[in-house]
Amino acid sequence: MITATIGKIFLEAYNKKHGTNYDAKSFFVDVYHPLFFDSNKYLQWVTNSPFVQMKKGQKVETLTSNERMEKLQEFITKVDESRSPDSSIAPGYPASEEKEFATTSGQVTNLDLSVSKDDYYLSWVGSSLGIGLQGGLSILFSNPEILLDIFEGWKLYRKALNENQKLKGNQVNTWNGQWLTHRYDKGNYFAEQPMAGFSPFESSKEGMMSIATQTWTKLLIGITRQFSSPKMMGYVYSFGQTNTTLGFIPFNLEHIRRPIELYQRLFGEDEGRKAEELWGTEKGLRACCQKGAIGIEAMQPKGLKQYMTADKGLKLPKYDEKQIISFHTYQIWLLAMLNNQEMWDKSLEFAKALKSYAESGKKGRTTNSRQIDEVLGATNKRSFIEALSNIASDIAGIESIQDIAMTVNSMPTDNVPYFLTLVRFHAAALNNPNNKQ
Fold first, then answer.
1. What is the phi/psi pair of residue 175, to 5°?
2. Could you report the per-residue pLDDT of 221-231, keeping only the tens digit for each?
3. Is residue 275, in this structure, part of any structural domain at all?
4. Is residue 400 part of a domain?
5. How far apart are the C-alpha atoms of 151 and 129, rounded to whole Å?
6. How many angstroms separate the Cα of 132 from the Cα of each of 72, 120, 139, 215, 219?
7. Does residue 28 sit within a domain?
8. pLDDT for position 205
9. Whole-prediction pTM value?
10. CB within 10 Å: which end of the chain, N or C, has fewer?
11. Which one of 199, 231, 263 terminates a domain?
């Protein structure tokens, strides 16, 4: 199963990096168990596992060192005696035979797959490497560097739990999402002081603290900073009261990088950092995965759709200095979808030509404004060309207008709404007297 596969990839990378020769069981006993379960707070809670099955009067918070070692030995014995893995001793595998079709089960197959005892131990490691994100979904990446970086975060989570009695345990996957995002924030991460500026905690009920869930877009933006590879495969899933598998999803890092880099290039790195909160807010990760891949389309900021389509009445954008980052984010996503930076200049020059025509008064300001609104309100090739033809003979720079008409007419149909919406945003910015564009 996928958890064992990820665990195997990690262990091979760990041994290579540290010059060790652990097998699955020895790593579990010597490294993994002390971090996760040899304490009065666990890093992970696996339902029905020997580590959470308590005798009368036992609680995790009061277990002695000897009792914790007894539970480890009980777990090892169950693995040795098991004929087939189930989720209580191999996370990510189906529930026990009598419950294998319950909602808490997953990865069920009628194939007679060979499972070694190593896979039992590796599945624990692999399940702990899942990156928990907002929306209740997690991602497993097979990239060895990512897995090793997640492991380094485990030691910091253990340290935080040991030092803060109010911090909730059993959130290792949620911690992974926060830690990895921080780890790949090159402007704010310092290897000498890995916890500097890192505070993923939030207050919970009864005065306790927990780990806040990270957004999937901030995680992916961090990964795109760290890795130059164009694509990366991830396994998207959810383990809980109901197990859900979305499957293997390609993450197009090159596409995700594009709007980030465009924003910084046009509006500066500082503002670009602030805009990161807005990317990918139109749809959740689950909905985006239904497209079959995660790329630039998934980065669409929330609220832009009303300026693109006339389904519920097209809304023309307004330039609001208090919402300038949202305004710029909309512009950059449209440009990224067009995948041609020349379209920025073309759309801006066209918006300037429309503004000049509106102010010329050749047919009266009211008539001019109405005709400009018809051009800006066009949402497809036909309506745009028709609206443009009404003013083409009177507008200054007829050659540039003809060029725009030819550009739009030759565009792929899917790109037309993006270009026309970008024109609307440029027009809105130019009509604000305080804008320097």
1. -60, -40
2. 999 999 999 99
3. no
4. yes
5. 8
6. 26, 22, 7, 9, 10
7. yes
8. 72
9. 0.89
10. C
11. 231
pLDDT beyond 70 at 53: yes
Calpha distance 324→274 (Å, rounded): 11
Higher pLDDT, 341 or 311: 341
Q: What is the mean pLDDT of residues 375-402?
A: 80
Q: Are residues 65 and 164 in the same domain?
A: yes
- Are residues 154 and 36 both part of a single domain? yes
Taken in order 184, 187, 189, 192, the sign of the CA dihedral is positive
- Residue 42 inside a domain? The answer is yes
- CA-based nearest residue to 289, from 214, 335, 233, 227: 233
| Domain span at 374 | 303-437
Asked if 187 and 329 sit in the same domain, the reply is no
User: What is the C-alpha to C-alpha distance for residues 364 and 415, in angstroms, rounded to an integer?
Assistant: 33
Sheet holding 131-132, edge to edge: 131-132, 138-141, 231-238, 244-252
Going by the DSSP 8-state scheme, the letter that residue 97 receives in this structure is G
Query: H helices within 82-143, ranges in order?
Result: 117-128
Interval 301-313 mean pLDDT: 86
Query: Which of 214, 231, 248 lies at the terminal end of a domain, its last residue?
Result: 231
Whether residues 179 and 94 fall in one domain: yes
- Please give the Cα distance from 126 to 187 (Å, whole number): 29
393 has pLDDT over 70: no
Q: Report d(CA 101, CA 325) in Å as an integer.
A: 48
- The span from the CA of 68 to the CA of 60, in Å, is 9
Give the count of domains, the chain. 2
What Cα–Cα distance (Å) separates residue 136 from each residue in 141, 218, 243, 244?
17, 16, 11, 10
Give the HSE-up count for residue 172: Cα atoms under 13 Å, Cβ half-sphere: 27
pLDDT, residue 240, reads 74
Sign of CA dihedral 79, 85, 91, 96: negative
CA atoms within 13 Å, Cβ hemisphere of 153: 27
Q: What is the b/e burial string over 50-77, where b = at least 16 CB atoms within 10 angstroms of the residue's CB? A: bbbeeeeeeebeebeeeebeebbeebbe
> Phi and psi at residue 62, in whole multiples of 5°?
-120, 5
Spatial separation of the C-alpha atoms in residues 275 and 329, rounded to whole Å: 7
How buried is 431 (Cβ within 10 angstroms: 0-12 exposed, 13-18 middle, 19+ buried)? Answer: middle
